[in-house]
């Protein structure tokens, strides 16, 4: 497995990571791994997939959009 070092991490970010890790019952390192894994997961990369598909000639048919509903503020 690879290892990375994150330098110049803002103190506030480190503190929030520490709190988030504690809330999930994990170490800061485990929490950082979870965050990084989620950030590059397939579901979060849909925009990249759509972009790559369009660059390879794949036509994506978008659904028709209806007009926005009017709000009744009465």
From TrEMBL:
Pfam family, one: FitA-like_RHH
Signal peptide coordinates: none
Antitoxin FitA-like ribbon-helix-helix domain ranges (all copies): 2-40
Transmembrane regions listed in the UniProt entry: none
Gene3D superfamilies hit by this protein: Met repressor-like (1.10.1220.10)
Listed name of the protein: FitA-like ribbon-helix-helix domain-containing protein
